[in-house]
Write a structure and sequence with these properties.
Helix content is 32%, strand content 13%. It has a domain of 82 residues. It has 3 helices and 4 strands.
Amino acid sequence: MVLLQEGECKECGQKFWPSEALKSQIQFDHRPPLSEREPDGLDYTPKANDPAYIEALHKACHAKRTYGGDAKATTLGTDVHNRSRSKRLARAHTTHVRNMDTKGTGQHQKNAGAIRSRPWEKAKQK
């Protein structure tokens, strides 16, 4: 991978030093991320280890691309943010479909947002 990229990091464009390979400072990143690829039996489309879809990066550049750098919260547009968003949308869609299916059968779901009765006694009318 490093040779195919002419010894350069795909994120920052700087050359890799030979000592970085010995110290495990070079990491490999899937583009597009595996979480965004379509499953195809036991593999993905495109294939998980296809060299055309893997990029060599500095360890720090890989962390920045995946997690958004040193931030404790994930940054908009990073791999982790996109994966979390996809899962959240899938859950919301599943809930919506289930609610629509229930409506079609004539069954009513309990309204979680219903206003509860007052905890004190109501005033008596004269």
